[in-house]
Amino acid sequence: MTKYSQAEQTTGQGGLQLLRIQTPWSVAEIYLQGATVTHFQKNGEVPLLFLSAMSRFEKDAPIRGGIPVIFPWFGKPEDKPNQHGFVRARVWEVAGTKTNADGSLEARFKLPSCVELPSIGVDYVVTVGVTLTAELIVTNGSASEFVYENCLHTYFTIGDINQTSVAGLQGVEYLDAVDKFARKMEQGDAIRFKGETDRVYLNTPHTTEIRDASLRRVIRVEKDNSVSTVVWNPWSEKAKRMLDYGDQEYLRMVCVESGNVRAEAIKLLPGGVATLKVKLSSLALL
Ligand code: TA6
């Protein structure tokens, strides 16, 4: 255990570059590929983030797990070449690290300028301490309105999907991707999982809680400047079709994602700056 926070850049899986961060309370790893936080673990706890054992760590391939940064589109719009934007597979630059007054470590990343986004600045700030925060900052340096979707597509480690629920969305409308995106209302006090679950909850700034009776842990997902929450578990059949994901891994993970997607896309005026922020914390399930 380290007395002071520190960060070192080193080589990780597949020969990819990553930042390895140690703080007095936790450890984290952030791959420059997609600026993907792949690991966050508080001392003495099970890792908070899930990373597939089958994930690819190759140039231009998204990492399966952690916190993929989804931008500038979510899902697979007809006019787009692939799913979930392109920045999660690009190599970002480390813009700097610093230790904050509270002892946490802040790592800043910058998306290198790209032809797809002329005059759009994209920065990402990850702060590691007792909690983990991630902030995606978009600056519109162009002369026209920039419309985009964003989502921090976070994979969480749980002990058993059959003993896990997600609370905080009761009474919220959602689009059910496993039922032709039918518009429905969340009736229950918590979402429980009995099969493939893929829901886009709308107009919800609410904090959610993942209640894991197996690990006796609550993971709290707080967010700022986000009105869409996506809840996803592929379940067994889709898991088998995913080459970078183990057939049984659906039992030990759930995605609770924070962003602004579909009709809730961000419209950023010239000169505007918009920040999407999530804060992840864990506490004992009493
Ligand atoms: O977040 C839910 C979702 O849109 C699901 O439909 C599923 O496709 C998941 O994202 C993973 O997408 P990916 O492109 O990373 O395989």
Instruction: Give the tally of structural domains.
Output: 1
Q: Which regions have little confidence, pLDDT < 50, spanning 5+ residues?
A: none
CATH structural architecture: Distorted Sandwich
Major β-sheet strand ordering? 6-7-8-9-23-19-18-13-16
Largest sheet: 9 strands, antiparallel
Helix content: under 10%
Rg over C-alpha atoms, rounded to the nearest angstrom: 18 Å
Mean pLDDT: 97
Bound molecules: 6-O-phosphono-beta-D-tagatofuranose
The fold-level CATH name is: Beta-galactosidase, Chain A, domain 5
Class per helix and strand makeup: mainly beta
H/E topology pattern: EEEEEEEEEEEEEEEEEEEEHEEE
If helices are DSSP runs of H or I spanning 4 or more residues, what is the number of helices? 1
Q: Gap between N and C termini, in Å?
A: 27 Å
Quick one: how many beta strands? 23
Q: Quick one: CATH class?
A: Mainly Beta
> β content, as a range?
over 45%
Features:
mainly beta; Beta-galactosidase, Chain A, domain 5; eight-stranded antiparallel beta sheet; 23 strands; 45% strand; binds 6-O-phosphono-beta-D-tagatofuranose
Topology at a glance:
Elements: E1 6-11, E2 17-22, E3 26-31, E4 36-42, E5 69-70, E6 93-99, E7 105-110, E8 120-128, E9 132-140, E10 146-148, E11 150-152, E12 155-157, E13 164-167, E14 173-176, E15 182-185, E16 190-192, E17 197-201, E18 208-212, E19 217-224, E20 228-233, H1 235-241, E21 253-260, E22 266-268, E23 273-284
Antiparallel strand pairs: 1-2, 2-3, 3-4, 5-11, 6-7, 7-8, 8-9, 9-23, 10-22, 11-21, 12-21, 13-16, 13-18, 14-15, 14-17, 17-20, 18-19, 19-23, 20-21
The structure holds 6-O-phosphono-beta-D-tagatofuranose (TA6).
6-O-phosphono-beta-D-tagatofuranose (TA6) binds at residues 62, 75, 83-84, 153, 177, 198, 230, 232, 255, 257.
